[in-house]
Write a structure and sequence with these properties.
Rossmann fold, 9-stranded mixed beta sheet, disordered C terminus
């Protein structure tokens, strides 16, 4: 498995262990794997990384979701690198450079299975925090499950999820049932919201110029993940209740892709039991938490969660080594 930046293809392995001191703005990455090439965006600190943050986008978007094309100061990747983390936002298998995998109709668990080796190689033994949005939240939790059941080669600290579809209305369930997933990518039923154009939130909750750059963020949805999308509330409840690491769960106040924020918050509070877990609402934000005006404060909260887990892990290892 090889890792290359687009401007230096084939010239340099950029695994975590050898990437200290690179710095610079976020840039594209290509990752060669046994099943094909993955794409994404990486940001590296100017000093030796303290850990690895892996971000997984939701359905119908891509790696650029976590690195806004119009508000770079809100970029999760840039903020993470500025605080000493190596950050990698990956196009999930079936997106970006790996659209050839759409024919395999991968569900989210299969995507996570393919990503496990990538996460292990990127981390190279360093602590890891997973971040997932919407369907990417399910993928992140599935990846956490793969890691927890694996050989112990990945030091997973926790999982931060936002916009996770934990509660659907009856109308939303009916809409999912009418999605045409017979091809390699889905066809939405008439009248269904366009993803993510109508999911950004009310006017004034996101930069108006973002609409002119949506082509940099959006992508067609692989049909293989639609069964999981339809059954997301049940799948998420199972994954959250079984998680062996702390989970941060963020709810958009102006959520429109599932039930109300209050209903989602209440349901999450019933499930999240792991010590160290967090549950909060992002005020004034629509479903796409990382693209609105609240993105920077939300991302800083994600990084605060990561810092708390890293500090706890460091203290625990220090005690064990005495």
């Amino acid at each position: 498995m090889s890792f290359f930046t687009d401007h230096d293809m084939g010239a340099r392995d950029i695994g975590l262990a050898s990437s200290g001191g690179v710095g610079g703005p976020p840039r594209p990455i290509r990752i060669d794997t046994a099943y094909g090439t993955l794409s994404g965006i990486t940001a590296e600190p100017a000093v030796s990384p303290r850990g690895l943050l892996v971000a997984l986008h939701g359905g119908g978007s891509g790696a650029a979701y976590f690195h806004s094309p119009v508000c770079p100061e809100s970029s999760l990747l840039a903020l993470a690198a500025a605080t000493g983390w190596r950050a990698v936002s990956l196009d999930r298998p079936g997106y970006g450079a790996s659209t050839g995998l759409q024919e395999r109709r991968l569900d989210l668990a299969a995507q996570a299975g393919l990503l496990r080796a990538v996460a292990a190689r990127l981390a190279a033994g360093a602590p890891v925090i997973l971040v997932g949005h919407s369907l990417g939240a399910i993928t992140a939790l599935q990846l956490a499950r793969h890691i927890e059941r694996g050989p112990g080669d990945i030091r997973l600290l926790g999982v931060a999820v936002g916009g996770a579809p934990l509660v659907y209305t009856a109308e939303q369930r009916a809409m999912h049932a009418t999605v045409d997933a017979s091809g390699t990518t889905i066809r939405r039923p008439p009248g269904a919201p366009r993803d993510p154009d109508d999911w950004l939130g009310p006017e004034g909750s996101y930069p108006s110029q973002l609409r002119e750059h949506l082509h940099e963020v959006v992508s067609r949805v692989p049909s293989g993940e639609m069964a999981d999308a339809a059954n997301a509330p049940e799948l998420l409840a199972e994954l959250l209740s079984e998680a062996h690491v702390p989970v941060q769960f963020a709810v958009a106040e102006l959520e429109s892709t599932m039930a109300s924020a209050t209903e989602v918050f209440t349901r999450a509070a019933e499930i999240l039991r792991r010590p160290g877990s967090e549950l909060f609402t992002v005020p004034g934000s629509g479903h796409n938490l990382s693209l609105g005006f609240g993105a920077r404060s939300y991302h800083l909260r994600v990084l605060s969660f990561a810092e708390q887990l890293l500090a706890g892990s460091t203290n625990e290892r220090s005690v064990q080594e005495r």
